[in-house]
């Protein structure tokens, strides 16, 4: 799923994590304007600014320590020898700014708590959701072995988007369960984003012919490219020596409707928050530029 309909622009051709989100930029502008109107002067904002800067400095120090230990493979004593002086200075500055919490310093604290809560709720909720979905998965090889025992086949092509090509997509299972049919040709399509800005057209498509009319297709995009699944499928069909007709292809997409439960994995209010955030996502078909009149959404209710 894709959060909201906000654009994500990659501003660097070398760093995949360097992005610009216009919607967030406008939200920052509005928030800063509101803060200026509330505090009225820069002197009154000093408390909020000072606490925010010192906490950021301390977090940067911790991140450098983590980087040195985990990625640069420094010895523990070397990391401590390098980090402790900086951490000591940061803590001195931070402790002095803690006195400003009641005179404006509470603003960055509240903002940080809200953002952190949203991020961790989303992360935890996605983990719980994926665990529940994984419990209902069926290995693709087992499914293909018993395919003759399933329902009848109809003409046409069915495309199932999946992030785990080794298992049967949920949309395929739901279609078979409720409609009792399979298409003549079924394509399991996986989208992968590479850590390079652009992927060579010759390396974009990887196809694999399975049995009983099933095909596995992997489409690679660079992080600066806009995915266009119908266009890439045309290339894949050419590789497979199949006739491509978009009006003869149905794209099956899974969409889950989440229901808060009394699960002990996450508190009730966080479950409700995650459900609200999930509802705010836009269909993955929009992101991949799949025509709406070719999309079939098959969903289910899942308690989290």
From TrEMBL:
TM ranges: 19-39, 51-72, 79-99, 105-122
Keywords: Cell membrane, Ion transport, Membrane, Potassium, Potassium transport, Symport, Transmembrane, Transmembrane helix, Transport
Cellular component terms per the entry's GO annotation: membrane
Domain K+ potassium transporter integral membrane: from-to ranges: 5-145
Domain K+ potassium transporter C-terminal: 155-304
Top-level taxonomic group: Bacteria
Subcellular location: Membrane
Residues annotated as signal peptide: none
Record membrane topology: Multi-pass membrane protein
A GO term, aspect molecular function: symporter activity
Family: Belongs to the HAK/KUP transporter (TC 2.A.72) family.
Protein's recorded name: Uncharacterized protein
Lineage: Bacteria, Pseudomonadati, Pseudomonadota, Gammaproteobacteria, Moraxellales
């Amino acid at each position: 799923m894709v959060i909201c309909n906000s654009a994500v622009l990659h501003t660097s051709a070398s760093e995949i994590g360097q992005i610009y989100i216009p919607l967030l930029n406008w939200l920052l502008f509005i928030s800063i304007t509101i803060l200026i109107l509330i505090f009225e002067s820069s002197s009154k904002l000093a408390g909020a600014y000072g606490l925010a800067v010192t906490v950021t400095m301390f977090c940067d120090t911790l991140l450098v320590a983590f980087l040195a230990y985990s990625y640069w493979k420094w010895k523990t004593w070397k990391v401590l020898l390098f980090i402790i002086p900086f951490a000591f200075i940061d803590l001195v500055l931070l402790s002095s700014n803690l006195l400003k919490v009641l005179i404006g310093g509470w603003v960055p604290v509240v903002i940080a708590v809200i953002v952190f809560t949203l991020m961790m709720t989303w992360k935890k909720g996605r983990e719980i959701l994926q665990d529940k979905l994984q419990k209902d998965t069926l290995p693709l090889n087992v499914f293909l072995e018993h395919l003759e025992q399933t329902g009848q086949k109809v003409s046409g092509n069915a495309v199932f988007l999946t992030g785990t090509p080794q298992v049967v997509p949920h949309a395929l299972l739901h279609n078979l369960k409720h409609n009792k049919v399979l298409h003549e040709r079924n394509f399991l399509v996986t989208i992968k984003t590479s850590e390079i800005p652009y992927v060579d057209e010759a390396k974009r498509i990887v196809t694999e012919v399975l049995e009983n009319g099933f095909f596995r297709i992997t489409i690679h995009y660079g992080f600066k490219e806009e995915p266009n699944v119908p266009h890439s499928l045309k290339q894949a069909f050419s590789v497979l020596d199949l006739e491509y007709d978009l009006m003869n292809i149905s794209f099956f997409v899974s969409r889950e409707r989440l229901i808060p439960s009394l699960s002990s994995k996450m508190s009730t209010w966080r479950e409700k928050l995650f459900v609200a955030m999930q509802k705010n996502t836009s269909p993955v078909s929009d992101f991949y530029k799949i025509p709406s009149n070719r999309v079939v959404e098959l969903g289910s209710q899942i308690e989290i």
